[in-house]
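thread from #wetlab-drylab

HS: before we spend reagent money on co-crystallization trials with biotinyl-5-AMP, can we at least see a predicted complex? here's what I'd submit
DV: go for it
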Amino acid sequence: MKAVIKSGLTTKTMGREIFHYHSLESTNNTARQLAEDGAEHGTLVIAARQTAGRGRGGRRWSSPEGGIWLSLILRPQLLFVQASLITLLTAVAAAETTREVCCFMPDIKWPNDLLAGGKKLAGVLTEAFAVNGGIHYLVVGLGININIRKNDFPPELRQQATSILIETGKQTDRALWVRSFLMAFEQLYDEAAADGFAAVLDRWRRYSSTLGKDVLVCSSGCRIRGKALDIDGQGALLVETEGSIRRFWAGEVIFEQER
Ligand code: BT5
């Protein structure tokens, strides 16, 4: 897998160093250890399966063989509060890679999901480790269900999760997907580092299934109903509710018509 990802990889930093494992607890955990030991910006950690894959807030992430479970170590010049922009950038890179490699375009749901037909196809888990209000390093984890059949998911996920194989009926070359993702990610990242995130946010808006919808947002213990209007320059979600506009940094969005 490692050699196949590397062949034809033209990135300058992303995936120049690759750690590939058959099985890990969580690629984010291993990436964190490697980053603490000084691993370079762009280092990729990838595993064929995870035994304790993690979602946000301690949730579990099911990671059977057939998916892509990866983490990138980043050492960006960003403020801690800007880490969520990397989540949006990762979602855009993953959506565009899927369009190119699998001829299938998912929707992006704020803040960290890729969806197909309303079911979850992929998720992003960005973890920032800070020094003095700035970012020491970031670990951005991405899990995408590629060649996974319905029965490979645990029973409780079968109605809410989907995969590229389920959606298209076709097997995808995972090494090709990863290589394309690294190139797409680096291009977006370099553009954002040079010119800011405005272009990334515009692309995110184009693919979003969240904006314009009536939503219920659950965040820090409160539940707010309203209309999702936009994202701001920091990637926060703007929701109009009872005549005022609320700003959410993190949270769970439920589309009202699906409740
Ligand atoms: C996420 O969390 O969506 C972030 C998932 C990030 C996973 C990657 S894999 C590589 C790296 N290493 C890790 O340990 N993690 C990252 P959240 O928004 O909290 O969604 C979690 C919820 O998604 C769970 O509570 C389930 O309902 C659902 N879920 C779990 N596994 C799934 C899967 N394989 N496909 C679709 N939905 C899933």
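DV: The longest strand covers residues 119-131.
HS: ok that's useful, forwarding to the group
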